[in-house]
Write a structure and sequence with these properties.
binds magnesium ion; binds adenosine-5'-diphosphate; nine-stranded mixed β-sheet; three-stranded antiparallel β-sheet; single chain
């Protein structure tokens, strides 16, 4: 009788009870392979459990435990790489060791009886077979359990595999992220490399510049050292020059004082009162009436004499005529052709005296229309050729002050412009009716100095400022002219520039007044024809002009009483006339023959003044 085959199924022998087929065992199970391996590598000492199993001894161990141990595959994948060994493959079958066959040899004794049943002992054989079948069933159950377990393990392993694959995927993801990052880092490092290279380049450049700067610094230090020595040398020179400058200043001051003294001496020698005669030219309209100036004679080579000639009927016989000749001598006679500049040249030295601290008074005397206003103001203050004495004097004063500033003199100026009409004063720089009439008063009861309290005295710092004031005055006068019928020729106009100089370094001060006076027309009106206002005008003009003459004469004779108070004109000019001042009178003469007697009167008056020798002037120094 054949033993139970290794086919996994027990074939039913005819006449034999049908046994339920055993669950098929596949050789793919790893346990089989492990067992096969063991079988292939020869007989091994069996573990006690296996021995027990083989011997069919009942065991407390659950079936299938031994083969599980034999597997010893880690349930969960370790951190390492997935193990190929896990792949379950069929192991080659080798004869006896084939696990697919019943683990119990066919010839194994059944029921512990090792004897062979006699052929007849069918019962015994049956029981053996039953026993074997029971064994096989048991075994099949065990194997089934093992199989389940192995399936479980397989599932676990597959899960593990999936886990691994997922992990691999994850790791792949990680790897790609890392490689992206790596790429990024590589690029960054490349960039850093470039930057580093740039920085190195910049460093090289800066080093070069530093070197250049150091070289320059070195040079500069050398130059500085040289400059220091030069500065020291210059300082020494500056000190010696400052010393010399101080000496020069001393000398200059001494020279300036000497200049002033000599200048004054010259002026005194010329006379502190001088008279200039000026004959104006014939105007275009006048030339038609009068051909030439026969009655006026200017001796050639003589600029100090004027001769008036007149044919008079002889008292002896009707036929004969007698030439009347009047000789006049003055400090200077200006012919009709004399320009304003020529005239000013002669008076500019007096203007210098005003800056030196002497009162200076310049008058224009003469009949109306003789050229007084033309001489003093000029027809146009802005016309450089024809500007009069006032604008020219003003320019010289400011220029002179500038020159004296270099010698330590500082000047302040103020200007006033008024007119005297009918013995009353009027401010030409803007009347202030609220202040009432302008009066001449003493500065203080202890002082002889006079002033006009409400008269505008405007500080001026330049020639232009003064010219503006002159324009204002001219405008104010012309308003009056229309209202009072040529009132300007009936009034005296007085421009005064007050000059205050200080030399702080030497504690010197000087002050003076430069007065330029355009007197009222000196013509005598026939008193019998003058009435009312005209009469009063004439009287007041006569009074003031004659008192001017009297004052000058009294001064010349050094009389104890000088009649200044006889007229507003002389009273106002009290400080500017006399011993302490310098005077100059223009006697203006009309070239018209019809004005002969007026011209004669003017020249006589001027001659009287010219005869006066006024006492030595003293500078108003304090
Ligand atoms: P006064 O002021 O004495 O009344 P003006 O100065 O008004 O006289 O002169 C009278 C006229 O004569 C004016 O038209 C003036 O321009 C003119 N005149 C005066 N002097 C001169 C001169 N030297 N050259 C040219 N014209 C003059
Ligand atoms: Mg005039």
């Amino acid at each position: 009788m054949a033993a139970v085959g290794s086919g996994g199924s027990v074939g039913a022998a005819p006449g034999m009870a049908v046994v339920a087929p055993l669950p098929a065992l596949t050789s793919r199970l790893p346990v089989r392979r492990a067992a096969a391996k063991r079988a292939a590598s020869g007989p091994q000492p069996a573990a006690p459990e296996q021995k027990r199993a083989r011997s069919g001894t009942a065991s407390s161990q659950p079936p299938g435990r031994a083969p599980l141990r034999a597997l010893s595959v880690p349930a969960a994948p370790g951190p390492g790489p997935p193990r190929k060994a896990l792949t379950v493959t069929a192991a080659p079958r080798t004869g006896k060791g084939n696990c697919g066959a019943a683990p119990v040899p066919a010839e194994a004794p059944v029921g512990g009886a090792h004897r062979r049943r006699a052929a007849w002992d069918l019962k015994g054989q049956l029981s053996d077979l039953r026993a074997a079948l029971g064994n096989q069933k048991e075994k099949a159950q065990r194997l089934d359990g093992e199989n389940r377990q192995l399936r479980e393990q397989l599932r676990e392993l597959q899960e593990a595999l999936q886990e691994r694959e997922r992990r691999v995927e994850e790791l792949d993801g990680c790897v790609s992220t890392l490689s992206t990052e790596l790429e990024k880092h590589r690029q960054e490092s490349e960039l850093r490399g470039q930057q580093l290279e740039e920085l190195r380049e910049a460093d090289r450049e800066l080093s070069a510049r530093l070197e250049a700067a150091e070289a320059q610094l070195h040079q500069t230090k050398a130059a500085l050292a040289q400059s220091d020595s030069e500065v020291a040398e210059l300082r020494l020179r500056a000190e010696s020059q400052a010393r010399r400058l101080r000496e020069q200043e001393e000398l200059q001051h001494a020279l300036e004082m000497e200049r002033r003294r000599l200048h004054n001496l010259v002026q005194e020698l010329k006379g502190n009162i001088r008279v200039f005669c000026r004959v104006r030219p014939l105007l275009a309209a006048e030339k038609e009436k009068q051909k030439g100036m026969e009655h006026l004679h200017f001796p050639p080579q003589d600029n100090k004499t004027l001769v008036l000639l007149r044919e008079e009927e002889s008292h002896i016989g009707r036929e004969r005529k007698e030439d009347l000749k009047y000789d006049f001598s003055f400090d200077r006679v200006f012919r009709p052709s004399a320009s304003q500049e020529e005239v000013f040249e002669e008076i500019s030295l007096l203007v210098q005296s005003a800056l030196d601290g002497y009162h200076v008074c310049i008058f224009a005397y003469g009949q109306t229309g003789s050229g007084k206003t033309y001489t003093m103001e000029g027809p146009d203050a802005l016309d450089p050729e024809r500007r009069g004495m006032i604008p020219r004097a003003v320019r010289q004063v400011f220029q002179g002050a500038q020159e004296l500033a270099e010698k330590g003199w500082q000047y302040r100026f103020s200007a006033s412009f008024l007119e005297i009409y009918n013995e009353s004063l009027r401010d030409l720089l803007g009347a202030r009716p609220e202040c009432g009439e302008l009066e001449i008063r003493r500065v203080s009861s202890a002082s002889e100095e006079l002033h006009v309290p409400n008269l505008r005295r405007i500080p001026v710092a330049s020639e232009d400022e003064v010219l503006q004031l002159l324009q204002t005055a001219t405008a104010n006068r012309s308003v009056a002219r229309t209202a009072l019928n040529d009132h300007s020729s009936r009034s005296h106009s007085i421009f005064q520039l007050r000059i205050d100089g200080t030399n702080a370094a030497r504690e010197l001060r000087c002050s003076s007044v430069l007065s330029l006076v355009d007197l009222a027309g000196s013509e005598r009106l026939d008193k019998s024809q003058s009435q009312g206002k005209r009469l009063r005008e004439t009287q007041s003009i006569n009074t003031s002009l004659s008192s001017l003459g009297l004052v000058i004469m009294a001064l010349a004779k050094k009389e104890p009483h000088i009649p200044y108070r006889n007229s507003k004109l002389t009273y106002l000019l009290q400080n500017s006339l006399g011993g302490n001042a310098k005077m100059l009178m223009f006697v203006n003469i009309s070239p018209l023959e019809e004005n002969f007697s007026e011209s004669l009167n003017s020249l006589r008056f001027a001659s009287k003044v010219n005869e006066c020798v006024v006492g030595t002037a003293h500078a108003n120094r304090k």
